[in-house]
Amino acid sequence: ELKVEQNPLFLSMQEGKNYTIYCNYSTTSDRLYWYRQDPGKSLESLFVLLSNGAVKQEGRLMASLDTKARLSTLHITAAVHDLSATYFCAVDPTDSWGKLQFGAGTQVVVTP
Amino acid sequence: DGGITQSPKYLFRKEGQNVTLSCEQNLNHDAMYWYRQDPGQGLRLIYYSQIVNDFQKGDIAEGYSVSREKKESFPLTVTSAQKNPTAFYLCASLNTGTGNTIYFGEGSWLTVV
């Protein structure tokens, strides 16, 4: 059974500082997704990572994928209040393509 | 505009009732999904369909049923067998072409009264 573990589950950030969220998964996959969710809302796609070594950046967020280590990271540079949300990673396993599994989410709160 | 439409946004169910959540997409995507999210939790897969007239159970399919008679539609029925249905339900579809992207609907809140 595929397990997707995110850590930390809660992250209190100070504005202007850098932080990293980790996503570990237990089976072979080269497709990983990052999402953002605001309270009471649906999920917003942030990044799609489709190969080993993939790195994508958008604004203050950068995501990377290491399929050999089964690890993805979401790096936040110089946090700002607008980044307060819950962030999810999701993995599409190679042996059951299409059966996406989500991590538990990382709740991010950015304070001055 | 292309996208995924879920309805209703809010739904109340009485004990013993079946209710159906609608999900329609005009993105021409082959794969569609239903997820359940409980407060403060991640998403759990209920059912998914990769092609018309075919669907597979996810991790928590008990008490739910689906159909996929048309490419653009993937309704979810929450049956009376689902003992704790109060949750946020999200429908999604996947573009299986280059640069896979998963699109989510706005979600449906189901409450048992």
Description:
The complex is a heterodimer of chains A (112) and B (113). Chain A is globular and about 45 Å long. In chain A, 35% of the residues are buried. Helix content of chain A is 0%, strand content 54%. The N and C termini of chain A lie far apart (41 Å). Chain A has strands at 4-7, 10-14, 19-25, 32-37, 43-49, 55-58, 61-66, 71-76, 85-91, 101-102, 106-111. In chain A, strands 2, 4, 5, 9, 10 and 11 form a six-stranded mixed beta sheet that branches. With 113 residues, chain B is mainly beta. The mean pLDDT of chain B is 91. In chain B, the strands form two sheets. In chain B, strands 2, 4, 5, 6, 9, 10 and 11 form a seven-stranded mixed beta sheet that branches. A four-stranded antiparallel beta sheet of chain B has the order 1-3-8-7, with no helix packed on it. At the A-B interface, β5 and β10 of A face β4, β5 and β10 of B.
Features:
heterodimer; A: 112 residues; mainly beta; 6-stranded mixed β-sheet; 5-stranded antiparallel β-sheet; 54% strand; globular; B: 113 residues; 7-stranded mixed β-sheet; 4-stranded antiparallel β-sheet; 0% helix
